[in-house]
Design a protein that fits this description.
The complex is a heterodimer. By secondary structure, chain A is α/β, with parallel strands linked by helices. Chain A has three domains: 275 residues, no CATH class; 103 residues, no CATH class; 52 residues, no CATH class. In chain A, the strands form two sheets. In chain A, strands 1, 4, 5, 7, 8, 10, 12, 14, 16, 18 and 20 form an eleven-stranded mixed β-sheet that branches. In chain A, strand 2 and strand 3 form a beta hairpin. Chain A is globular, with a radius of gyration of 21 Å. By secondary structure, chain B is an alpha/beta fold. Chain B contains twelve helices and 24 strands. In chain B, the strands form three sheets. Chain B has a ten-stranded mixed β-sheet with strand order 4-3-7-9-12-14-17-20-22-24, covered by helices on one side. Chain B has a six-stranded parallel beta barrel with strand order 13-15-18-21-19-16. Chain B has a two-stranded antiparallel sheet with strand order 1-2. In chain B, strand 3 and strand 4 form a beta hairpin. In chain B, helix 2 runs antiparallel to helix 3, helix 3 packs antiparallel against helix 9 and helix 7 crosses helix 8. The N terminus of chain B is likely disordered. Classes of the chains: A alpha/beta, B alpha/beta. At the A-B interface, strand 20 and strand 21 of A face strand 23 and strand 24 of B. Strand 21 of chain A pairs antiparallel with strand 24 of chain B.
Chain lengths: 438, 481
């Protein structure tokens, strides 16, 4: 316990350095929010496994290190950045290195008129009214200690604004590269995506690391899906397997909006993803899909909460995990149907395949329902590759290894094939091949 | 919609059918709890030294514990010093047959429709009736004794079979287990004890009727059932309670032990006073039930129909220790008005090739809240474990809530786990279909609800299935049909 307090004090002491690095920017109204958050942070405790929301995820390894908030960008070469790009993919590109915007590598000149895609720091400096209106409004920093930490150190991150009736056809690829160079860094991207009425946008959030370093990424993303908008969100997490990744995505859905998220998680020693969506109007549609491939001593934890606060909304959730080594998968999906949210359809599914005898799955699909005219279901399965299917393939002359790969592909395809971008689908297929075609 | 509202109102206005107080002199302790009370209790019951020590250990441990608050239920704080921890019907010399039993007591049972004679003659059920806290009459005892079966009150067992009690009491639910189980360990008044010797198949369904009678007396029942190697027993437990305005605490503990190849089937129909339509009064039912499948090929099956109590907090569980052992849980939980139920099960797979099945059906009406909370845990060495869980919720009316909190903790790759849950209301198309065939809406809803619960009802022994359906009609049919 004493150690947790030390670590908290460590981050509080870092806040001073951070303030000094802001160079007069600390006069902006956003700084009030930062100060409020750090004060709140001082009062909160780091969660332990005694907290229901963190019951299976022991974060004490994260608290063992004094991570240094990353205050400046690091120079890396163009070829390093290119390693992480998808060649077949035509897209707009935003690159962040160690949490800071790298303008020279970014490519946003092709965007339709009125669309803003850039870094949030610039918007803050320009005193953007949109940022003032939305930043910190959806991710609660008063109760969540990691959100408080992020809010206190709000500096940079992606900012996307799509005005009403605009459609961005090519996806926006946001690449977060960490290059620690031996330092134990804390990077805290703070993202805000705003989609106006009848707009459409596809956003790929991509986390990657130059080397297998030890660092801590703490992300907070806020998404506002305006009336009748379509927002496709893909999160690809390929951090170093020694790193820690804690992320919180808060989605605010207006009437008839359609939000879809696909979260593919491969890296990180401890990863925690929170996806929370709230329907503010009727007729909304929310899809949360995920695939996690774990090995070694990785721990991956997804917490989702879909708040059906209004009637006539649909939600679909499908998370799939393939666990090997001594890895651990945690899933906690919550569907809340509030009073009067009639005609709700909510479906949730979590399937896991355990490939080794030391892997562990903790899953808790949860329904809380206060309205009667609803259709809700959840399901969870945990098992190994089906022996009958295996036999079927082997009987047709397919070897053990190949059969295994086929079955794993089939298992993962439920999530992979729902990704709308072909280049990414191919990439995920390749990852599956590389992983399981030994 | 409006007919449904009317039906709910109709039910809400229905008086609790089994609410009455029978006028029997009761010997009660003053309210309050301290070591002296426990000593006194143990002395009255002429318990051997080891029991007193055990009670005191539990009491000391209880003082260090905090009341749990994780369940999805709300209630005003309980003042444990305001409860009287012992109440017994006035003692009379030992009875050999029913004629010697207090006629007032017998009349009470008759009002409940559970006439001892009738049970005895017609259904062949041996009834160990627990009235308040002390066993009053035990029937068929001699017949069971011929087979070596011990079926008696816990107090008798402590005096006559201390070696069995010492060996098994607290072996499944240790006195340190949880707040309410620890309290029970310290102050339990009586309960039932069953021992089935090796290779014996108990020829009849054993049953006990619990009733809470004296005002302000918490009931702390302790039940222990042991099925030795190759034995089989089916045990029934049913409850009704008189109408009361104050909340009464009931913190029972049930322990089951199944050795090699043994089978225990434990069925419950619970219909305690649920409080009135404004949520005033009713029983707090905080029960710890757990069975240990200790031996290979052993099987424990829990079936419960929960319609009563203001608050139900109960998770009948199975520890599947022996290889090839089987755990089952079948439950129908009905809540209405302001009732709250947080119930479910735990299946802990520890042996190889263990299997478990969970079927839970929740029905919420009125302003009630009904939660399923369950855990399926497969430990690392439990190879080839298999679990199937299904928890369905049915909502009647738009002011009630249904919740599911299933935990699946799997640490073995050969495990096969399936969990399904659905929530829905009775479909208008289903009712329309039945209406078309000349079935009135009331009957249609009744049919649908009965069909919905059928999977659980079919697990009940014959004697109980009738009562369960009666109870369902009392608690629910007013609201739906």
């Amino acid at each position: 316990m004493g150690h947790d307090v030390d670590i908290r004090d460590w981050y509080i002491s870092r806040f001073k350095d951070f303030e000094n690095s802001l160079n007069g920017e600390s006069l902006k109204p956003i700084h009030m929010l930062r100060k409020e958050a750090i004060e709140g942070f001082a009062k909160l405790n780091f969660p332990t496994t005694r907290d229901e929301e963190w019951r299976f995820t022991n974060i004490s390894p994260i608290l063992r290190f004094n991570f240094k908030p990353s205050l400046k960008i690091k120079k890396i070469t163009k070829s390093t950045v290119e390693k992480f790009l998808f060649k077949e993919l035509n897209c707009h590109l935003l690159v962040f290195i160690n949490g800071h915007f790298a303008k020279e590598f970014s490519r946003t000149n092709n965007l339709p008129k009125g669309v803003v895609a850039g870094n949030i720091n610039r918007e803050i400096s320009n005193g953007s009214e949109l940022v003032g209106r939305h930043l910190g409004k959806y991710a609660n920093h008063k109760e969540q200690i990691f959100t408080a930490l992020s809010t206190a150190f709000t500096k940079d991150g992606a900012f996307i604004y799509v005005p009403d009736d605009k459609i961005i056809e090519e996806p926006i690829h946001i690449l977060f590269i960490t290059d620690t160079n031996g330092e134990q860094l804390l990077t805290q991207p703070r993202n805000l995506y705003i989609a106006g009425k009848n707009s459409q946008v596809t956003i790929l959030e991509h986390y990657a690391s130059v080397n297998e370093g030890l660092y801590f990424t703490n992300v907070v993303t806020e998404v506002v899906a305006g009336e009748n908008s379509i927002v496709d969100h893909i999160k690809l997490q390929e951090e170093s397997v020694k790193s820690f990744h804690i992320s919180r995505t808060e989605i605010d859905q207006e009437r008839s909006s359609n939000f879809a998220s696909h979260s593919i998680s491969l890296g990180g020693e401890i990863t925690r993803n929170d996806f929370n969506s709230r329907f503010n109007g009727q007729g909304g549609e929310c899809t949360l899909n995920g695939l996690y491939l774990l090995n070694g001593n990785q721990l991956y934890d997804t917490h989702t909460m879909i708040d059906h606060a209004n009637p006539y909304c649909n939600s679909h959730e499908h998370y799939k995990g393939i666990l090997d080594g001594q890895s651990r998968g945690v899933f906690n999906g919550k569907i809340m149907v509030r009073r009067d949210a009639q005609k709700t359809n909510a479906f949730q599914e979590n399937n896991n395949i355990i490939l080794s005898s030391d892997a562990l799955v903790n899953t808790k699909p949860q329904l809380e329902i206060f309205a009667d005219d609803v259709k809700c279901s959840h399901g969870a399965t945990i098992g190994q590759l089906d022996a009958d299917s295996m036999f079927y393939l082997k009987a047709r002359g397919i070897g053990e290894e190949k059969a295994r790969t086929i079955l794993i592909h089939a298992f993962a395809s439920d999530v992979v094939r729902t990704v709308k971008i072909e280049a990414l689908r191919n990439y995920f297929e390749k990852i599956l091949n590389d992983r399981f075609n030994k | 919609m409006s007919t449904e509202v009317n039906q709910i109102e109709e039910l809400a206005n229905k008086e609790y059918k089994y609410g009455f107080v029978s006028d029997i002199e009761a010997e009660s302790f003053p309210s309050g709890l301290d070591e002296d009370i426990i000593r006194q209790l143990s002395e009255i019951k002429k318990e051997p030294e080891f029991m007193l020590e055990w009670r005191l250990k539990a009491y000391k441990h209880w003082l260090t514990m905090e009341e749990p608050n994780w369940a999805n239920i709300k209630y005003p704080p309980i003042d444990y010093q305001a409860i009287s921890y012992y109440s017994a019907p006035k003692k009379k010399p030992a009875k050999k047959n029913l004629d010697e039993v207090d006629p007032e007591l017998l009349r009470t049972y008759e009002k409940l429709g559970i006439s001892l004679e009738e049970q005895k003659v017609l259904s062949g059920v041996a009834v160990d009736a627990v009235f308040d806290s002390v066993s009053v009459a035990t029937t068929f005892k001699s017949k069971l004794a011929e087979l070596g079966i011990i079926f008696c009150s816990m107090s008798d067992a402590i005096q006559n079979h201390p070696e069995l009690v010492k060996k098994y009491l607290g072996s499944v639910v240790p006195y340190t287990d949880n707040f309410f189980a620890t309290l029970n360990s310290a102050v339990f008044s009586d309960g039932s004890f069953v021992y089935i010797p090796k290779g014996v198949r108990c020829p009849m369904e054993l049953s006990t009727y619990f009733r809470i009678n004296a005002a302000n007396t918490g009931q702390f029942e302790r039940t222990l059932i042991i099925a030795d190697e190759g034995a089989y027993v089916s045990y029934l437990e049913g409850c009704t309670a008189p109408m009361r305005d104050e909340n009464q605490l009931h913190a029972a503990v049930v322990e089951l032990v199944a050795l090699d190849n043994a089978q225990i089937k434990y069925s419950t129909v619970q219909n305690w006073y649920p409080g009135d339509k404004n949520g005033i009064g009713g029983i707090y039912n905080f029960v710890t039930k757990r069975g240990a499948c200790r031996g290979v090929n052993s099987k424990i099956s829990w079936t419960q129909v929960e319609t009563g109590s203001a608050i139900t907090w109960k998770y009948p569980s199975c520890l599947l220790i022996g290889d090839n052992s089987i755990g089952e849980f079948y439950s129908v939980a009905v809540t209405n008005n302001f009732q709250q139920a947080d119930t479910g099960t735990k299946m802990i797979h520890m042996g190889k090739n263990t299997r478990s099945t969970i079927i839970s059906k929740g029905i919420s009406a009125g302003k009630s809240n009904n939660s399923y909370r369950g855990q399926v845990k497969i430990i690392k060495r439990a190879d080839n474990a298999r679990n199937f869980s299904q928890c369905d919720s049915l909502l009647i009316g738009d002011k009630c809530g249904a919740h599911t909190f299933p935990y699946l903790d799997i640490n073995n790759p050969s495990a096969q786990i399936e969990h399904e849950a659905t929530t829905s209301k009775i479909g208008e198309d289903q009712i329309f279909y039945l209406n078309q065939r000349g079935i009135s809406t009331e009957d249609a809803i009744g049919m649908i609800v009965n069909g919905y619960c059928k999977e659980v009802f079919k697990e009940l022994p014959m004697e109980f299935a009738v009562e369960a359906q009666k109870l369902l009609s009392v608690s629910l049919e007013g609201s739906v049909g």
